[in-house]
Amino acid sequence: MFTLDADIPEPLRPLAWLLGRWEGVGVVGYPTIESAHFGQEVEVTHDGRSFLKWESRAWILDSENGARVRPAAVESGFWRPVGGGEVELLLAHPTGIVELYYGSVEPAKIQLRTDGVLRSPGAKEYNAASRMYGLVNSQLLWVMDMAAVGQELQSHLSATLKRVG
Ligand code: HEM
Fold first, then answer.
1. What percent of the chain is predicted at pLDDT more than 70?
2. How confident is the model at residue 3 (pLDDT cuts 50, 70, 90)?
């Protein structure tokens, strides 16, 4: 059972429910790609300072037997609470994209929109995104909409993760 750690700095408390290791599955799709199932592992830690470190890895899964077919998205970054129920999320991706989200934190729900996106010259056209994270029945649900490759902001994925540590 996850309990609030006394060492968690006060500014991180609204985000404390994210801490730990999470694993689960989701579905990815977009008008320009084939839909697929994916597996995801997320590790969220803190070192006593007022930010969370976020590491996420995903794999495309075989739709028949659930086996890992190939690695998919990897992202790494930091959650920075800025007070007043607001938070920044900085993320770097190996696809040449760096993004900064800004949004609101509620007891079991975080809503984010990109405030800025940087693309390396070789990156795909990726313009904006929104994410929602929610704690529902002890599971971490998240969804991401994106505006990319000439498409309007729309769903790219949804996933449900269970706490494993
Ligand atoms: C768990 C997270 C994610 C998974 C499993 C996932 C999976 C996929 C897959 C399977 C594709 C089709 C191309 C391919 O096979 O590589 C794709 C395309 C794409 N994804 Fe994701 N993705 C994830 C997160 C993200 C994030 C965070 C971004 C942006 C920072 C992103 C941006 C894109 C873009 C721009 C495309 C290209 C679409 C196209 O060329 O038509 N994805 N994604």
1. 96
2. very low
Q: How far is the CA of 73 from the centre of ligand 1 (A)?
A: 7
Give the domain extent around 91. Answer: 10-163
The finding on whether 46 has its CB within 6 A of some atom of ligand 1 is no
* Most informative mutation of 62, 100, 157, 158 for ligand 1 (most atoms within 8 A of CB): 157
Q: Please give the distance, rounded to the nearest whole angstrom, from the Cα atom of residue 1 to the centre of ligand 1.
A: 33
Domain assignment of residue 4, yes or no: no
- CATH of residue 144's domain is 2.40.128.20
Cα–Cα–Cα angle for 105, 151, 71, rounded to 5 degrees: 70
| CA 17 centroid distance within chain | 14
Q: Give the residue, by CA position, lying nearest to ligand 1 atom 17.
A: 33
Tell me, yes or no, whether 111 lies in a domain: yes
Q: Flag whether 5 is in a domain.
A: no
**147: Cβ below 6 Å to ligand 1?**
no
Report the length, in residues, of the chain: 165
pLDDT tens for residues 19-66? 999 999 999 999 999 999 999 999 999 999 999 999 999 999 998 999
Total count of domains within the chain: 1
Q: Is the CB of 148 under 6 A from ligand 1?
A: yes
Residue 154 lies in a domain: yes
